[in-house]
Task: structure prediction
Amino acid sequence: MAAQRPALDPADDLTHALNVDFDAALEPLFAQRPRSPIVRPSTEADVRALIDDRWPAGDEPLAALTAQITQAFDAYPRRNTHPGFFGWVAPSGLPTDPLAHAMVAAINANVGGYWSSPVGTTIEKTVIRWLAELADFPATAEGVILSGGSISNLCGIATALARAAGPDFRERGMAAFANDARPVVVCSTAAHFSIRRAAILLGLGSDQVVAVETDAEFRLRPDRLEAALEQHARVVCVVASAGTTNTGAIDPLAEIGALCRRHGVWLHVDAALGGGGLMSPELRPRYAGIELADSVVMDLHKWFFQSLAGSLLLYRDAEPARDLFYDSPDYLRSGDDIHTPEQYMFFHIAPELSRRCRGLPFYLAFRFYGFDRLGRNALHNVECAEYLAALIEAEDELELVVAPQLSILCFRYRPAGVDDERIDAINSEIRDRIQLEGDYLMSATQIRGRPVLRVCILNHATRADHVEGLRDSVLRIGRALVDGISR
Result:
């Protein structure tokens, strides 16, 4: 039977350019970034009323679709980009990001390695080298940009686990530890919960996470760490923090690094939040000792001000990661010597195969703005936090609970003559009312069992007048609540 030559109906051709004015399409979204309210209360039914959920038959005008999405996000936002967003650790985004991410989509490269994207791989390796230099890692350091800090922490701890188990781990898994002491991960009580989740996912179990005490500034105590290292015969790794989520604390990395080297234990530094401070020469001394780590995580979509998503997992020596992750079926093998630049594959040191060109937006932003300029913005965030701390200490009605080590601080409204239980309720009410007013947002947390007002400043758009406005709002609302009680 003769083969019939296929032909696609021209009406079904998907290769035509859209002929869209991107600036005009994005301008309404840029205009929303500083707009209040930061959050507007909603139900899922409220949002669904703005989203057309009919079966997609096609041929709807792009202008109408973009307008629908723009209006929905404006009606029910959570604006991470707002200069008064002091809540969770969230990306503020840079003006270069939309262009860069559009380029990523247009190129549509799978940056699994050089073979699948020579340019994308070279760009990403360049970004990784710059960031390795910030951390004072050797020129031989390697890394990979993953989706987020949780995955980066998981992969870093997995590499440490495989190294601790020895060469049998790939074949035997946790059975490689069967005739030995149970492996543990040591961190502080202030470490991010992704460390516990990594232990669960890797089959260690949450019971095998040893959380040691912190000092008065919520930093891991080296003396308690040393006791844990001496107590447990099989420590997979020590996880230190360079910017904890709750208080922004930086563990004493130099002392921790020296202990880990003395005991032959892998040191993993979680700098997912705080890594951006390395761009500032004034802040870099606070990270002394990070160069002793075996692996470091830095989220570029946090304090590097970039849009989602990209988290650097950096290895001092990537061979243990290569021992764990390396696998190459025939259809992906393009040569026998995997150590040549042209055979370089990111999936040899991390789990992902298909992955977009994550490094391009970061390359573009770093080249356009420069580390010095971005670092001055990170320093300004710290200065704003320190300024707010000084404003708090100048007010009799306010109490500074946690001073900023980076750009996070915690405080309370604490008027005289009101008992602690009532003060707890007042502070929770202050936070809720400020969020409803719309100009500022703080996240809920507790310090030493008491609710506090937590301020996290990671936005390049935040200025001194924003922290002054927050202080004024807290005092105004707090006084109104106390006045209501007294009446």
User: Anything to note?
Assistant: The radius of gyration is 25 Å.
